[in-house]
Amino acid sequence: MTTRLYVSSAWLLVVALVVVAGIAGGNWHLAGVALVAASACAGYILLGLAPAPARPVGRGSQKVDDTVRREFARKLTHGLSSPAAVIADGLITCTNLAWLEFFDLATTGDRILGIPFATLVHPQDRERFIALIRAVEQHRDTGVVSVRVIRSEAVEFACEISALQLDAAPGMLLLQFNLPDGGALSRGADEQRSEGLLDGLEQVVFQIDLEGRCVYLSRAWEGLSGFSVRESATRPLATFFHPGDRSAVEAVLERVVSGRSGPTLIEVRLVAGNGTLHWVELRASPRLPGAGQARGAVGSLTEITRRKQLHESLQSSRRHLNTLLANVPGMVYRGLNDRDWTMEFVSDGSIELTGFAPHEFIDKAKRSFADLIHPEDREFVWALVQTQLARSKPYQLSYRITDAAGETKWVWEQGRGIFSSSGELLALEGFITDVSARRGAEEEAKRKLWFDARTGLASRAIFDDRLGYVLEHAGFTGYPCVIFLVDLDDFAALNVRYGYDFGDRLLAQLARRFKVVQGPGTTVSRSAGDEFVVLLTDFRLGGATSAVPAARELGPAVTRLAERLGEALAAPLRMEGHECRVTASIGAVIGPSGHTSPEAMLQAARKALAAARAAGPGHWRLADD
Q: Which single residue of 105, 209, 544, 598 could bond 539 by disulfide (Cβ 3.0 to 4.6 Å)?
């Protein structure tokens, strides 16, 4: 453009002189021709000063052949020693070997072609990289940006990328990578930076090659093994382990480095330089940069000697405990507080005691322990255990069971409830042993302490415990209960007439008539002399629709129960040739409403009984709340 300006200016000067000369000489024809030439020259100059139209890049009338462009780009990148790649429209067109080695893609270079280069840039740096590409495309200039790229191991690597438009290959950009300190590709800057971090770990971090030799060991190796990192380098890792574990280590590492196995964990013994054995947890994973071909393995060694010692100690304790339980003449258990006595744990002593294996009782797999308890003792066992649990005290009792052979055995059980910090009953734990051979008669005599010898009813001690439990439970749930205090009218006259022995036998016969009101949970006890007391919590025998009736059903149900009991006791009774008829006065009280203690409730029942006596024999009265 400068040359055109000089030539055109000189020509314009000559034409101007001709015009001046023509005018001065009167030759107007010559002057006109000179003016036309001057106008053409000026237009030529202005045309030279105007900017040239932009050449279309990649597409248009001056499009460069794509094959030629790609060949130029390939030769250019292969001639560079630093990592370099060429992109077109953001897609990778070609790379050199240094770039492929940098990304650990030397064996799979063809797979990277045609993918967006931005996908190799860290997501947080991607916008900055795209801005660089746009700036270079607009200004036809070079640019440099610091970004993080993602290598095939999914690790970050910080580097500088410079971009340059290729005039000889329009539409293509050359990207070159500047590695800090000219770092070797086998040890990138990210690995150099992370080495200090790995050296700060308590666990040993290692890398081995295809032959199982140590390529890298963190500093923790020296503290664990007693060997220096330098003297351990290139030695097979398996040689540092106990001879008894060495073959297992070699087999595991061989599978991992060959890619035939994924991440693996084993516990083995490492022999330190001073001969000390260390239990370690060896983790190894294949190092697979690409093409599915392993380039060794990476992993860690974590010392677990202390954990192993604790485990062995625990196992030893368990063995001693199992031995002890196996030699105990009885069954140790842990179970739930339900009527099936569902078991969570049963010792092997159950085989000798019951004839059934422990697993048959666990979660009632085949049978519940309640099935073994003699039918006549089941309610007794349940009531006594519940009474003691309500008082948060241990329980001791004897009862009969039927073993696998169908034989009846007397057993003695001792246990207690296991409670949470908030007082919630979690489980029962205890011990059951056979007492048939030595203490059958004695245990039967002890059992009679819980029942009145003459009536077969519950003792007053059991009644008082159950009443306390029912009132405490009712205080939380609001469930009603009723006490009937029963006095046999003029029974003293029968004793005088027929004798006290006759009177005792007659009481035993009358005690059986209380069954007319004995539903589930009912407790009947002889209070004193010819007085009985009944605790009732199930109102269905009184016609209620459920054990816990609605308020409108409660009064009528109590009335029917009292009348039914009075009629049963007043029915004629013939014994030893004598026909007897005994009426009863009944005082009733419904709880717990207002009665905060068993004593208060019994006192209210006694006042109601006095009112019934005042009304005459065979009457009943309900206490006023």
A: 544
Are the C-beta atoms of 132 and 315 separated by less than 8 Å? no
- Measure the CA dihedral 123/129/134/136, to 10°: -170
Sheet containing 91-95: order of strands: 91-95, 84-88, 172-178, 156-165, 143-150
Contact 170, 122 (CB under 8 A): no
What is the SS3 string spanning 429-452?
EEEEEECHHHHHHHHHHHHHCCEC
**Sign of the torsion angle spanned by Cα atoms 107, 112, 118, 123:** negative
- Tokens representing 549? 């009736």
Tell me how far apart the alpha carbons of residues 596 and 535 are, in angstroms, rounded to a whole number.
16
Tokens encoding 85: 């790649």
Give the span between the Cα atoms of 164 and 80, in whole angstroms.
14
**For residue range 377-397, what is the model confidence (pLDDT) as tens digits?**
899 999 999 999 999 999 999
Q: pLDDT of 599-608, one tens digit each?
A: 989 999 999 9
**pTM summary value:** 0.33
Which residue do the tokens 């140790």 mark? 332
Contact 137/165 with Cβ under 8 angstroms? Answer: yes
Whether the Cβ atoms of residue 289 and residue 297 lie closer than 8 Å to each other: no
Amino acid found at 345:
F
Q: Which 3 state secondary structure label does DSSP give 333?
A: strand
Q: Give the separation between CA 198 and CA 298, rounded to whole angstroms.
A: 13
- Rounded to whole angstroms, how far apart are CA atoms 489 and 610? 12
Q: What is residue 530's three-state secondary structure?
A: coil
